[in-house]
Design a protein that fits this description.
alpha/beta, Rossmann fold, about 800 residues, 6 domains, 6-stranded parallel sheet
Amino acid sequence: MEPTKEQQAARDVFAAGRDLALVAGAGTGKTSTLILMGSATRKRGLYMAFNRAIADDARRRFGRNVECRTAHSLAFRAVGHLYQDRLNASARIPAKHTARLLGIERDVVINSRRIKVPHQARLVMGMVRRFCYTTDRQVTARHLETVNGLDLQGQEYLARTLLPYAEAAWKDICSPTGRLRFEHDHYMKLWAMGEPRLPADFVLLDEAQDTNPVLEEVFLAQHAQRVCVGDPAQQIYAWRHARDVMTGFPAEQLWLTQSFRFGPAIARTANRWLRHADSEMKLTGHGPDSRIGKAPHPDAVLCRGNADAMSEVLAYLEQGIPVALTGGGSALHRIATAAKELKAGQRTSHPELFLFSSWGEVQEYAEQDKAGQDLKAIVHLVDTYGPDLIIQAVDRLSPEEAAQVTVSTAHKAKGREWNNVRIGQGFEAPPVDDDGLQRTLSTSEARLIYVAVTRARHLLDTEGLAWIDTYERTTTDTGGDGTVGGRSMSTLSLTAQLKYATSPLSRFMAAHLPHSHNLVRDYQSRIAGLPYPVQPIDVPYPNWSALGHTIDYRLRLSLGGRLGDAVTLGVMALAAEPAQAPTFPTRRALHVAGKNLLAKIDDHLTARTTLDDASLTRLCFVAAFFEDIARTGEIRRYSMLANASPSTGLENLVTAVPDYVLTDINQQLVLAERAFAPFRALPPAARTCGPVFTGSSDLGGADADFILGGLLLDCKATKNPRSLGRDEIYQLAGYLLLDYDNQYGINRVGLYLSRQGGLVTWEAADFLRRLGADAPLAVLRTRMRHHLREAG
């Protein structure tokens, strides 16, 4: 095949002996280009492949002067073979067993926070794991991950306490007779620390956009000619700590943009997702004729995750269609069998699960232990379909050569291609934010979808991506014509308008209060001495938004205020016939549960009953999800209300509140005692919770948290108070100006940082002066009224 101009240019740079970064789009013949380079010289070359299958295929295609290996095979040949017995006997070790091996015997208490023995073991092994991903030469205290809830001094103390255990763990791992789990990345690290010199005159690094930092160090240290090739838009393993070597590589950069895999139609679709992935590449299709359309009989169905793939497999089996699963189903069969045994209270002989005594312990391990993250998808799969159904499905799978269709996750489809591909389940549009506005598609998700759509040669069915048209209509030219998502900007709430520079409120602030940076600078200087924020410990994914609403509600209740109108509106919204899921019987059950919640809170406030702190916190946490309905117009996917049924009652919802919520809110309430004591001493008439202003109706709503004795106070539950800035300052200014008739007599404004117990306030006149106000408060309020009403 005659090389293209792009390929010939790459060959010429290589033949001249210069280092090269070759950015190769999907199907652009990168391997052919590398083979072209290898054949241009008689020097010894080393081609480093992403996985064994690619290396084996390349070995058949390269000339004899080029050795084709994976990085792990190089490391194993040099170092890993010494640990063969440990690799063969390797098993997952629960944290409590790891603690026994390390000699961790007692809990650590830091500032009244107790870190239990199993969690210490997880932190220690996490230190070793983070060390192995770095280019460091020894385990240090800085390899300890941030522990939520500890201040800087506590963090340093814990790191010093655990460091000897981490050093002992690494020493055990380095020993062929060690007892801790030995992993492939361990011998990779040992190999790299030996500063290996690769036996080649030139090194070709494939898939350079997803490179282990350890391999990156080895590659960059070579004195041989270096060529890295890949596509930064196909970086889909950053979650495994992979690095993009190509960006910033000190070499000449060339592009391969002519795809021979597909024609112009699929190239156009690929370019669409490249834009969302923030890539400058633009592919042209030079392959076979291709089209976008329905694929009733696809060769492959590509899904987001394992649970989505299993759903597709079950659907094909039900139709009697022979189906294969990429990677086969034997591993799933063994896992499901082991899960079945553990669920029955029996021990299992599965080499990765034999130390666990119950399925619940596996679930906890996968959820909380970073070493078990690769089990997380499997646990979700077992919990979704049950082990029996998975076993039955796996037993009925066909080998790929005998199947009519292959089902795969997008990650496992990397490097493969089929004639006809359907994009299956699991790829979803970004959710809306707390104001009901469309969030932006992440570049990492766009890259994964780009990989998926470029697996097809002839026919691409984008059924699973049908949402992209609506998404692009919603986000294209947002605000440019005075609308967002089809809504006039004047109808957006105060906080929502501040997100857009062209909104009526933002334009007013820019014209009349232009110097927000002065206030931000002053705020940053005043929080410098505050302690480290309290946060949930041992919880991978706390619901930060719901926790923020919960502490707000608890503080309101402590001042005699109610939850707020938004909670009531959310409850009432569920009484209507639904335009979307869930079904009306379920919505009716949630409506009743919400009314009962409001009644319980009302009875508590009027002293008809008395609720303890834990009960109040649980009710407030549930209330946050009803408020979310009022703000977004839907029950979002990750809402605790999303799993409700027609039999769900308030007791079910309250019982489902996680324990970490009680601990976290209690800590914030303890911090609030000192700051809020003077506010609770104020007469009831001087305490207003959830104030709504005269000007709130001139935009899509504006309700502050508190006005307490003339202090306009907004509560922020952020774990990173330094992230607060312009929008939060203008939020306070907006509330202040919307009180057109001085109904509340506001003379001070401020922010309360509930996770630090920090109170930052300004006199209203000084606040406006620092913002660069061009008129007194009364005049600014009049101008605001006219401006917003004209815009509306």
